[in-house]
Amino acid sequence: MANLYRAGLELHVDPGRRQLHVYIGGELNKTYPVAVGKPATPTPAGDYRVINKVINPGGVLGTRWMGLDIPGGNYGIHGTNNPASIGNRVSLGCIRMHNSNVEELFPQVPVGTPVRISLVPGYNAKGTPASHHNPGSGPPLDHSVHMVAPGDTLWKIAKRYNVSLHALLAANNLTNPDVLEVGQMIYIPR
């Protein structure tokens, strides 16, 4: 990722797939796994900018912090002291990265860098379930969606839809099959 510090750098966060994409001049350059906000405290969707940067903020923030101009809170992209959380919806709204990944990205991201946070499929910008389907949003054309209900496990969902556990993990970019949350949208490959 040499020389990212040039015009056209943008960060895109996909909370549904728990990924942060680095774009340079509109071209995808790198993708990192992340943790995002849990349903009760979702990562706010929208277009923002990096407004401050801190080295070694410590504690739950890991080794780097990049603050965002999200109204109504103190949100950022940061490292973590809980690497097992990466790939899950567990934060208070921030975007968590592995410390090694945020350390790689941090020096390349100047203050002012645009950050786009997408909607989680099936949810509105406030992180609550959407009451209607928006054309152009939702699962890829070769997938359907299952909303996790109380008692669901990834194994039960795989059996119900006659797909492999591996296929569900891959389609949803999940790293831990034991972490599901009621109301979470799971892509089901056809």
Description:
The structure is a single chain. By secondary structure, the protein is mainly β. The protein is built from three helices and twelve strands. The protein has two domains: 9-117, L,D-transpeptidase catalytic domain-like; 143-189, Membrane-bound Lytic Murein Transglycosylase D, Chain A. The N and C termini lie far apart (35 Å).
What fraction, in percent, of the residue positions are helical?
10-25%
CATH architecture of the largest domain: Beta Barrel
What kind of oligomer do you see?
single chain
Q: How much of the sequence is in beta strands?
A: 25-35%
The CATH homologous superfamily of the largest domain:
L,D-transpeptidase catalytic domain-like
Helix/strand-derived category reads: mainly beta
Biggest sheet, in brief? 8 strands, mixed
| CATH class category of the largest domain | Mainly Beta
Family: Belongs to the YkuD family.
InterPro entries: LD-transpeptidase, LD_TPept_cat_dom, LysM, LysM_dom_sf, Transpep_catalytic_dom
Active site: 78 (proton donor/acceptor), 94 (nucleophile)
Domain LysM: 144-188
Strand-helix topology:
Blueprint (H helix, E strand, L loop, with lengths): L8 E6 L4 E6 L2 E7 L2 E2 L8 E10 L8 E5 L7 E3 L10 E3 L3 E2 L2 H7 L8 E4 L25 E5 L6 H8 L3 H8 L12 E5 L1
Parallel strand pairs: 1-10, 4-8, 7-9
Antiparallel strand pairs: 1-2, 2-3, 5-6, 5-10, 6-7, 11-12
Concise overview:
The chain has 190 residues and is mainly beta. The chain has helices at 99-105, 154-161, 165-172, and strands at 9-14, 19-24, 27-33, 36-37, 46-55, 64-68, 76-78, 89-91, 95-96, 114-117, 143-147, 185-189. It has an eight-stranded mixed beta sheet, covered by helices on one side. A two-stranded parallel ribbon has the order 4-8. The chain has a two-stranded antiparallel ribbon with strand order 11-12.
